[in-house]
Amino acid sequence: MLTRVLGFVYGVVCYLIFFLTFLFAIGFVGGGNLYGAGKSLVAPRSIDMMPAGAPESLALRLIIDVLLLSLFAIQHSVMARAWFKRRWTQIVSPSMERSTYVLIASLVLQVIFWNWRPIGTERVAWDVHNSTGRLVLEGLFWLGWLIVLTSTFLIDHFDLFGLKQAYCYLRGVECPPPAFRTPGFYRGVRHPIYLGFIIAFWSTPRMSIGHLLFAGMTTAYMIVAIQFEERDMIRAHGEKYENYRKHVSMLTPVKFWKG
User: Fold this and answer.
1) pTM for the structure as a whole
2) Domains of the chain: total
């Protein structure tokens, strides 16, 4: 019983670290772009906030940022694959596997946030000064994050982030595998979580070059990650998911699921 209690506490701690990281991410992405370069929203760091210390060359800052984003892409993709999980669960309890994945992903994101190097706040791709235009972009920024969070609850937020598995472990029962469902946003797009991130990352009145690098690389990664995830979904759900793909668009809500 003590082991199960400790496992549940571990799952709760991992979830809380994730949720704080999620809030930090909102401030990191939006702080310096919605409220002016060098300012923060929720987090004490933002994409365009220059860290203390000696200035680094532009080339070095670019290399650091690309490596940081690549680190997350590798971790997020490799640890989510079935072949890795089979090996990983020989070390980590299957009941704690999801929580551990969430914990490591959150820590990698924190490494990115705290080591990110701005690419000069004076370099911008666009800078919207019109008050209506700024208001629209700020609204889309918040809408994107709302879509992300809402989409996780539509499918099973606590299963997705390991808390459900930890609770099942505490009770000494096996969690049933998540069923394939298409509630809410999932009837319009297959990947509303990724769509929400894309909207949030690109909706800024002031698109610095550093922010453009971040948005561009993360968007490219998400499009690639979808291909791997859909292969896993086809293996898990077969013809049901294939039929879903035929009726519902990947990211743009131009077709609607009717089944």
Assistant:
1) 0.88
2) 1
User: Is position 257 within any domain?
Assistant: no
What average pLDDT does the structure give for the chain? 86
Q: What is the pLDDT of residues 136-159, one digit of tens each?
A: 999 999 999 999 999 999 998 999
Largest CA distance in the chain: 61
- Backbone dihedral angles phi then psi of residue 257, each to the nearest 5 degrees: -70, 130
Cα distance from N-terminal residue to C-terminal residue, the chain: 44
Whole-number Å distance between alpha carbons of 16 and 38: 28
Q: Which residues lie across from 206 on neighbouring strands?
A: 127
Residue 255 covered by a domain: no
> Is 54 within a domain?
yes
Which long-range CB contacts under 8 A does 51-58 form with residues at least 24 apart? 51/117, 56/117, 58/119, 58/120
Radius of gyration of the chain (CA): 20
Cβ(193)–Cβ(214) below 8 Å: no
Segments forming the whole domain that contains residue 177: 2-247
- Type of residue found at 149: L
DSSP bridge partners of 127: 206
The phi and psi torsions of 124 (rounded to 5 degrees) equal -135, 150
pLDDT bucket at 51, cuts 50 / 70 / 90:
low
**Residue written as tokens 């669960």?**
89
What does residue 20 show for φ and ψ, rounded to 5 degrees?
Answer: -65, -35
Instruction: Give the SS3 label for residue 217.
Output: helix
Residue 256 falls inside a structural domain: no
